[in-house]
Amino acid sequence: MQYNGFMPYGPSPLESSPKPVREPRTKPVRITVDLAPADYQVLNRWLARAGVELDQPVSSMTLARAIRAMIRATAADDVVNGVVLDLLRAEQS
Hints:
- The protein has a domain at 56-93.
- Helices cover 51% and strands 4% of the residues.
- It contains three helices and two strands.
- It has helices spanning 37-54, 63-76, 78-92; strands spanning 6-7, 10-11.
- Strands 1-2 form a two-stranded antiparallel sheet.
- Helix 2 (63-76) packs across helix 3.
- The longest helix is centred in the middle third of the chain and has 18 residues, at 37-54.
- The chain starts with 5 loop residues before the first strand and ends with a helix.
């Protein structure tokens, strides 16, 4: 059988048109997290203590702001990352 450049199901992947370049996402991504009531209470108490520590009003200490800071801390600090991984391992067993 002679190869003519066509595949029986369409053009060869090498000959397909290039995919358009996507613009980077700029709109925030919304997530939903279901927390046990006890975890929610711990998070809110931590947030209140953080507000006192930072001398900031409770209204500026939002859950989203706290979670963003926690994500950045986990990604940037190996010790924090290790603690989080240990907690995940403990939940796994």
